[in-house]
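pinned: reference chain
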Amino acid sequence: ISLTLWSTIFVILIAVPLGIFLTRPRFQRLGGPVVAVATSGQAVPAFGLLVLAFAWLGSGAWTAIWALVFFTILPVLRNTMVGLEQVDRSIIEAGRGMGLTNGQVLRQIELPLAVPVILAGVRTALVINVGMAALAYLIGGGGLGQTISAGIQLSRDLVVVTGAGLTALVALSIDWIAALIERALRPRGL
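pinned: its structure tokens
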């Protein structure tokens, strides 16, 4: 849970501001290359990404967290960009016509309308993080993968099923909690 929590916090702190930055008219041309770099995290298999992180940063929980961040930054970044780009331009122009500055338009119009799409990306990242965090034991990051691995090594099917079941239960629970948060943060009327 802590691997998932910390990696998701870092993903949000990196991807949401970066997505906002890349949707501003002056910087839209940078969107393609940045998304291509973020896509490379998803292109590498989870196991391979953990091994690369281990080779670069060594073993431990923080190495696993940074590998999880790189692996799951794409859904949040992409959804932030899509959510902001889908805001109707006429609504933005109406806000500017009312005298709002660009920052006010972003805070009062664009972000509230993009929140449902952004939060869908965060939910996706959370569930991916839970599944990949189970592999973090391979580089000394801990997690429920240790239970699954011990069950396999000891030929104890019950231990394997317990570890896998707990991983699935954590993923479903986190997704349910994220759905409640998404519903609470969704602007009224959307």
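why pinned: The chain has eight helices and no strands. The radius of gyration is 19 Å.
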